[in-house]
């Protein structure tokens, strides 16, 4: 990568940190832009045709392509606003249409299987936090003993966009907290315990537990614990607005992507419509006589 590109990436990182963007967002964007530079041989001076060729790859899902487009658009918009480029080639990239997502939750039996498949205590704790608090892997990785307040029965976390929230603490996680570090990360980095484990490491450990449990469905990922959290709350007939708050979603439509309505709830709901008496006859002749008489 050219020194010009490295300098631009460093400035872009500083700009995003000044915006108070989440560290995960900054890191993911950096990875996308670095991969683009590695593939194209340059970055700052790329033209729209090279960018389109990059997006024409056959082995990329639409959702991944949309994420990449967002990162590239943000980068070139920054370059243009700072006077490092006169134009913004990313504005001429086509928008990416992504099919509506379908919930892909683990079943209760699958969660139990992962917990009893021989996973070590640390991995079991990750699975519990993912399922009982509905945390993303990035939030699981950053759980700290000081985030837990047993008096108010809450847990502190930072959601997307760097927004800090305090959420109700599930009793299972409250019990788990008694065995976890009180003044340190629950899942510290191996080489530097003063820092949290990387999100990718959490993903790897939970994935290994999934495979060890004999769950081979590639659509089920560690993020499916979060889907299971939302789905099982709906199954328990928790109001969807409450589920939205617990999942820290800005939009209710996002919550609906994460929650699958079970057949049991559909059956239980449809019978709520009161039966109406069905007349044996149409009543049409009688109606006609009344009309003539009038």
Automatic annotation (TrEMBL):
Keywords: DNA recombination, DNA-binding
Domain of life of the native organism: Bacteria
Cited Pfam families: Phage_integrase (PF00589)
InterPro entries (alphabetical): CB, DNA_brk_join_enz, Integrase-like_cat_sf, Integrase_catalytic, Tyrosine_recombinase_XerCD
Gene3D superfamilies, A to Z: Intergrase catalytic core (1.10.443.10)
Start and end residues of each Core-binding (CB) domain: 3-80
Domain Tyr recombinase residues, every copy: 101-272
Family: Belongs to the 'phage' integrase family.
Name this protein carries in UniProt: Tyrosine-type recombinase/integrase
Record organism: Microbacterium bandirmense
């Amino acid at each position: 990568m050219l020194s010009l590109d490295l300098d631009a990436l460093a400035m872009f990182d500083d700009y995003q940190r000044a915006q108070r963007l989440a560290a995960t967002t900054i890191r993911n964007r950096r990875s996308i832009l670095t991969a683009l530079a590695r593939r194209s041989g340059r970055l700052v001076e790329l033209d729209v045709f090279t960018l389109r060729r990059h997006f024409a790859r056959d082995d990329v899902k639409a959702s991944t392509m949309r994420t990449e487009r967002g990162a590239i658009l943000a980068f070139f918009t920054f370059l243009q606003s700072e006077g490092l480029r006169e134009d913004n080639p990313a504005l001429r990239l086509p928008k990416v249409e992504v099919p509506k997502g379908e919930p892909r939750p683990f079943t209760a039996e699958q969660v139990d299987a992962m917990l009893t498949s021989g996973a070590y205590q640390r991995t079991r704790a990750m699975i519990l936090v993912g399922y009982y608090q509905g945390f993303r892997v990035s939030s699981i990785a950053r759980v700290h003993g000081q985030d837990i307040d047993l008096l108010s029965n809450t847990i502190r976390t930072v959601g997307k966009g760097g927004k800090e929230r305090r959420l109700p603490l599930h009793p299972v996680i409250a019990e788990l907290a008694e065995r976890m570090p009180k003044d340190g990360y629950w899942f510290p980095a191996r080489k530097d315990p003063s820092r949290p484990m990387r999100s990718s490491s959490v993903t790897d450990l939970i994935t290994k537990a999934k495979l060890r449990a004999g769950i081979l469905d590639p659509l089920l990922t560690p993020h499916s614990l979060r889907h299971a959290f939302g789905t099982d709350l709906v199954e328990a007939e928790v109001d969807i607005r409450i589920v939205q708050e617990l999942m820290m979603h800005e939009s209710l439509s996002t919550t609906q992507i994460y929650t699958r309505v079970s057949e049991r709830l559909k059956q239980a709901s449809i019978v709520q419509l009161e039966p109406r008496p069905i007349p044996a006859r149409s009543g049409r002749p009688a109606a006609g006589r009344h009309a003539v008489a009038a």
